Amino acid sequence: MSHIGIIGAGAFGTGLAISLSRIGTKVTLWARSEEQAADMQKHRENRARLAGCAFPDSLQVSSKIADLHDADAVLLATPMQSLSGFLGQNGDVLNGAPLVACSKGVDLSTGRGPTAIIREICPASVAAVLTGPSFAADIARGLPTALTLACKDAAAGTHLQQLLSTPNLRLYRSTDTTGAELGGALKNVIAISSGIVIGAGLGDSARAALMTRGFAEMQRLASAFEAETETLSGLSGLGDLVLTCTSTQSRNFRYGHALGTGEGFDSSITVEGAATAKAVTKIARDRDIDMPITMMVAAVIDGKCSIKQATEALLARPLKEE
Asked: What's the pLDDT tens digit per position in 170-195?
């Protein structure tokens, strides 16, 4: 029997664990807190993040990283800004197993994506990324979901595709890790801008315009990093963009909506797009890449400009061909 380890007992990690264990695969879900792990193991559900989604028998929960030492693959469902620190502390146990990043973002301190961090800290491991349009609750409930699995090593990617696919979770394979990472990271930034637009009462037409021009920004940055443009037009780019810009299930959209309405937002909720907007703004300035929406999102988050000022600045840009 295959053994899959999943690092991170948040909603997404838990959803993947339920989906993979539902077909009988041995799954170990690692939780940072011993108390949280014991609670989930006892009640056979994640009452804090996915209440009502029962754990199959082959899903076990642990707070001991050593319990993943014999895993055939380990999925890293940790926040992007925590990934480097986590691997730095635990890489000796995980180094050697294929490591699949499930986080979406750009590291704020280094400007790198997850597979570059994995390759540096765990050089003996195959690095891959799992990304695309998905909500944890849909995956946990067995609803049809399609994702991109990107791995530079084509043979290893094929093996992981077969290992991690389930009847309701369909994985499409790619070797373009850069494009897959950038699509997953940047769509969160555009989702924040879409939430701002709706929260501020600017309308669906404005949201559609932001989504379209935001997609153009995603393609420009991807091209600058020599990613394949086809990747951005797939699940990890356009597909994820559509989902997160139009659903209140998206944390990034809800965060943007709170900014647009002036309401408070729960600071305990991870919003990957906020740090990504800041990291990508720096990259865009250093490389002279035109990314006005991303820069405006970063400025609004940092309190450097109001939503009214950001809107006026975007509308005042020179007219040009599409």
From this structure: 999 999 999 999 999 999 999 999 99
Q: How many structural domains comprise the chain? A: 2
Are residues 164 and 222 both part of a single domain?
no
For 257-309, write each residue's pLDDT tens digit: 999 999 999 988 999 999 999 999 999 999 999 999 999 999 999 999 999 99
Is 240 annotated in some ligand binding site? yes
From the list 176, 186, 163, the residue with the least C-alpha distance to 16 is: 163
Active site residues: 187
Which pTM value belongs to this model?
0.95
**148 and 293 in a common domain:** no
Specify whether 18 is located in the same domain as 114: yes
Look up the domain containing 260 and give its range: 185-316
Is 188 known as a binding-site position?
Answer: no
Q: Is 279 exposed, middle or buried (0-12, 13-18, 19+ CB in 10 A)?
A: buried
